[in-house]
Design brief:
Among the domains are: 166 residues, 3-Layer(aba) Sandwich (Rossmann fold), CATH 3.40.50.300; 141 residues, no CATH class; 144 residues, no CATH class. The chain starts with a helix and ends in a 12-residue tail after the last helix. It is of the alpha/beta class. The chain contains 27 helices and 21 strands. The radius of gyration is 35 Å and the shape is globular.
Length: 714
């Protein structure tokens, strides 16, 4: 601003090391003050939906997998060309189910599985998605790409590709990989677009924003050199990963020759070295830094009237981390003041600059709309206030007219990640990336499927007699599944991966052990697998509250064959499979009934055993006289039920609180967003973390029945 006020200011250059937050902020400030300028750096504009679809298509062609396919279908505007009458949601659900079943995300394999087993209509639509070959000659790649562009309606890209490859593509007859071709295609058709504000698009204005390299060789009345911090400018040119600086120096010495052809002395004196004919110098990190410093000196000499230099006190990425000034900045300070630059001097200059900015009348900014900022502050304070959860932390303002219904597994997760369940139930969003837990999920699905064979005439709503030789039945089911997948892969010209065989072996071992434990039970000849709770009434709690429940029980054992869905006076034993490592629901240290009661309550409040406990409550609601409860996992057996129904039904306060959460929609937040020690689940929406102690205090105030006497941070 001071330079602009001077009569001699005919051309002012504001120079930046590179495009970044600093150049964008300066351009925005000049536009806000309505000062005409030319922003040659500009800023990248947000990609359009068509640009996103193009990038997703490139990724899909390079990686023919499920997630890239779904990304492309979700960003492609005219997806009716590919999907026909099917919706994207239906196709995504079908493909994700298929992936969970076979644990292979190759699109060709998923298409074959859908065509043969689950969704032939989806498989037919997937056949409309074309892929480039893994390797081909250049004309073939071009021809197939043009055909795909025509099918997708990308006429502009089709025309541009035809123009760029018209005269020379046929001359390349060697074959190369699809990856190399896609990299070339991305380079010629993916052009980042930079934009600038209307006020910053004035090339004949006095103020210019540009990089150091662009400013060299031009005439300037005033220059402002910004970002003179170590590593920013001069740029930090480290040694090459391939050739060290001393090796580069040795190479350069080999090609130097003394200039013996000169007959007169030049302006540089005598004894100059030159490079051998047909050779050139290789620049190392030292030479590149010297050139940058020489460039800086040339720029300073080009400023005729005034020069300003700046450096930032803190880094952009970490605002509280000190950013050291560059050697060039330090040397200039020493030449001007005759003393070394210290941290105290830097802070003093920063304070002086800040006070000057605050006192400058011409920097008074226009009044901003502070409503958004104020609302953000309100939300920030509300989430950290020691009181019940409000609408700012995964809770509804008013109770629901019709209570929701959660599954038994979701009730168990409520105690550890209530925010994730709330977003799924009320917003319909959940994290797309399930790769972190997909293997464990597939093992669980396979184990459950194979263990269905232990019951004669198994159905989702009926009981049957436990068959003989349970281990052999499970082995036949597992082997048949593996052979079907191997045959399907062979039709797709694929082989069964080693990692898949390893995962299958793990699942088979678990299911074989579980079948052995079930076979060892005595006096429980009848069983139901995957028994649905769809027909079960809501669980009544003290005759006033009710708990709505969805889900399927893994295994119910019975002493007598239940003839209906009413279990009046029946003795039942509900078993929940856990393919991971789990503890017994009943600790060996519990001696008295009081210890059992307190121990079970602590387990429930941590979310352990909630799922199988709810199954037992549902069976008790249907009239069962005695209901045993057990987890079946590695290291656990079925010698006797681990808990009985009265030992979990007595904790009315827990079940009433869960019922209240279904009615009110007030969940709150608990647990770490990201844990260093275990898998916590990904948040589908951007969520700021809150301190653990604050979350625990709010959890106790929001759900008093879940309050524990002492908790330790995980």
């Amino acid at each position: 601003m001071k330079f602009l006020a001077e009569p001699s200011a005919c051309r002012i250059g504001v120079l930046f090391p590179a495009a970044g937050a600093l150049s964008r902020s300066v351009a925005a400030l000049l536009s806000e003050l309505e000062i005409p300028h030319y922003d040659s750096i500009g800023h990248l504009i947000a990609p359009t939906l068509d640009d996103l679809a193009w990038q997703a298509w490139l990724q899909l062609q390079e990686n023919n997998r499920l997630n890239p396919l779904l990304d492309f279908l979700s960003t492609f505007e005219d997806n009716a060309r590919l999907l026909g009458s099917l919706t994207l949601e239906k196709i995504e659900n079908a493909l994700r189910r298929a992936y969970r079943q076979i644990l292979i995300d190759d699109i060709a394999v998923l298409r074959e599985y859908c065509a043969q087993y689950s969704a032939p209509a989806v498989a037919a639509r997937l056949a409309e998605v074309r892929f480039l070959p893994a390797a081909a000659i250049f004309p073939k790649f071009i021809r197939q790409t043009l055909e795909i562009f025509a099918e997708l309606g990308w006429e502009d890209r089709k025309t541009e590709l035809e123009r760029l490859s018209r005269d020379w593509s046929g001359k390349i007859d060697s074959s190369f990989s699809r990856r190399s071709y896609l990299r070339w295609l991305r380079e010629i058709l993916s052009k980042p677009t930079r934009s600038r504000d209307r006020c910053g698009d004035q090339p004949y204005s006095r103020v210019h924003l540009l990089s150091f390299t662009e400013a060299e060789g031009q005439e300037w009345s005033h220059l402002i050199l910004t970002g003179l911090n170590e590593g920013a400018w001069p740029p930090s040119n480290n040694e090459s990963d391939f050739v060290r600086d001393d090796e580069i120096d040795a190479l350069n010495r080999r090609i130097k020759v003394l200039n013996r052809r000169a007959i007169v002395q030049g302006r540089h004196g005598e004894g100059q070295w030159s490079v051998k004919e047909g050779k050139t110098l290789c620049l190392g990190s030292i030479e590149r830094r010297q050139l940058a410093l020489r460039q800086m000196a040339n720029l300073m000499e080009s400023a005729e009237e005034g020069l300003g230099i700046t450096a930032t006190l803190f880094t952009e990425s970490t605002p509280r981390r000190i950013a050291n000034p560059s050697e060039f900045f330090t040397r200039l300070y020493f030449n001007l003041h005759g003393k070394a630059l210290s941290q105290t001097a830097l802070e003093a200059m920063e304070e002086q600059t800040r006070q000057w900015v605050e006192k400058s009348d011409f920097l008074d900014r226009k009044a901003r709309d502070v409503a958004v900022v104020t609302q953000t502050r309100i939300a920030y304070d509300e989430r950290r206030a020691e009181k019940r959860a409000t609408e700012f932390e995964f809770a509804l303002r008013a109770p629901l007219i019709e209570p929701i219904s959660l599954s038994a597994s979701e009730f168990e997760r409520l105690f550890k990640s209530p925010a994730l369940i709330w977003m799924k139930s009320f917003l319909g969003v959940e994290a797309d990336n399930l790769d972190a837990e997909q293997w464990d999920l597939a093992v669980g699905i396979w184990v459950h499927e194979w263990l269905r064979e232990i019951v004669d005439h198994a159905s989702a709503e009926g009981f049957g007699k436990l068959g003989p030789e349970l281990r052999d039945r499970v082995e036949r089911a597992a082997t048949t599944f593996r052979d079907e997948i191997a045959t399907m892969l062979k039709r797709c010209d694929r082989v069964l991966p080693d990692w898949w065989n390893s995962t299958w072996s793990n699942a088979f071992y678990i299911s074989n052990c579980f079948a052995g434990h079930v076979a060892a039970t005595k006096g429980w000849p009848y069983a139901a697998t995957e028994w649905s709770l769809r027909v079960s009434p809501a669980i009544q709690i003290n005759g006033t509250d009710e708990l709505r429940l969805r889900g399927r029980t893994d295994l119910i054992l019975a002493k007598e064959d239940p003839t209906t869905t009413k279990f009046t006076d029946q003795d039942l034993w509900v078993v929940d499979y856990k393919t991971g490592k789990r503890k017994n629901l009943r600790s060996s240290q519990w001696r008295s009934e009081e210890e059992v009661r307190n121990g079970v309550l602590k387990q429930l409040l941590k979310g352990d055993g909630v799922q199988v406990a709810l199954y037992a409550l549902a069976l008790g609601q249907l009239g069962a006289k005695n209901v045993g409860i057990s987890l079946l996992a590695r290291g656990l057996d079925l010698s006797t039920p681990q808990l009985e129904l009265p030992q979990i039904a007595c904790h009315d306060q827990v079940w009433r609180e869960l019922s209240g959460m279904e009615k009110s929609g007030v969940f709150g937040m608990r647990g770490a967003i990201r844990s260093e020690f275990n898998f916590t689940g990904a948040y589908p929406l951007a969520t700021l973390a809150v301190d653990y102690d604050v979350l625990e205090a709010k959890w106790a105030l929001t759900h008093p029945a879940f309050a524990t006497q002492s908790e330790e941070e995980p």
